[in-house]
Write a structure and sequence with these properties.
- This protein has eight helices and 15 strands.
- The chain is elongated, with a radius of gyration of 21 Å.
- The relative contact order is 0.09.
- It starts with a strand and ends with a strand.
- Strand 13 (226-229) and strand 14 (233-236) form a beta hairpin.
- It is α/β, with parallel strands linked by helices and 246 residues long.
- Strands 2-1-3-6-7 form a five-stranded parallel β-sheet, with helices on both faces.
Length: 246
């Protein structure tokens, strides 16, 4: 797996040095920056997988920097701030921040949040790439996204509902990656508002998974493909081969 390259942006020298050292000790490449000019210098120089961006950078505003970066960059951004009010958090999210962490924070929690944002970014990239593919093959099955057809190993077309098809697409795009119920709910949400999943919505995901299993598994009660991942959610536990329409 590629070592993540992170940009730590803070005008507090001690905090910046502490964070870069901590991240390097935990398997990351951590690069320091203190203002927008240095951010752009790093972005122009090479790959950056995530930016830790302080909200208050002397005379510069991290929120305004985030807004400008979002006009031209899709790199994940986690904002860090001593301001913890809901209005401050919403200001960060409204300009495109992927997460917002209030100071003081536990570094282990920060590392967990970084890993979560990086994982979401990888899955989004995978989904964007795979959505360009025309056919998906898995365990003898074929899903033709252009015709929206699911063909069984025996050559029969299997009818799926719209929600079942969306679930299958999310699973195919993230084969062998455990997905939480919340991540699945977000993938199925066409409004873009599915940030949190209620207990009722979680149970609805379970029901939907059960319906899809009934249509594609030989034994839905002992599934080979769409498996339960204890403590996480579900995982599509088989390899998926994709082909484009060329």
């Amino acid at each position: 797996m590629t070592i993540p390259r992170l940009l730590v942006v803070d005008d507090d020298v001690e905090l910046r040095q502490m964070l870069t050292q901590f991240l390097r000790q935990n398997g990351c490449i951590a690069l320091p920056a203190s203002n927008e000019a240095e951010i752009r210098k790093h972005l122009a120089a090479g790959r950056i997988d995530l930016i830790l961006l302080d909200v208050m950078l002397g005379d510069e505003s991290g929120v305004e920097i985030c807004a400008r970066l979002r006009l031209e960059q899709s790199v994940p951004i986690i904002m860090i701030s001593a301001l913890s009010a809901d209005s401050d958090r919403m200001a960060g999210y409204s300009v495109g921040a992927d997460d917002y962490i209030a100071k003081p924070f536990n570094t282990e929690l920060l590392l967990a949040r970084i890993r979560a944002v990086l994982a979401r970014a990888r899955r989004t990239s995978s989904l964007a790439h795979r959505r360009k593919m025309a056919t998906f093959s898995f365990s003898g099955w074929v899903y033709d996204s252009k015709r929206d057809e699911v063909i069984s190993p025996e050559g029969f077309q299997v009818s799926l509902s719209r929600r079942e098809t969306m679930l299958l697409q999310a699973l195919l795009a993230n084969a062998r990656i455990p997905l939480t119920r919340q991540e699945i709910a977000v993938a199925l949400d066409v409004t873009g508002e599915g940030e949190k999943t209620s207990d009722a919505e979680g149970r609805a995901i379970d029901v939907l998974v059960g319906r899809l299993r009934a249509k594609i598994e030989k034994d839905p009660k002992a599934p080979d493909m769409l498996r339960t991942e204890r403590g996480v959610g579900y995982v599509f536990a088989v390899d998926v081969v994709t082909e484009d329409d060329g």
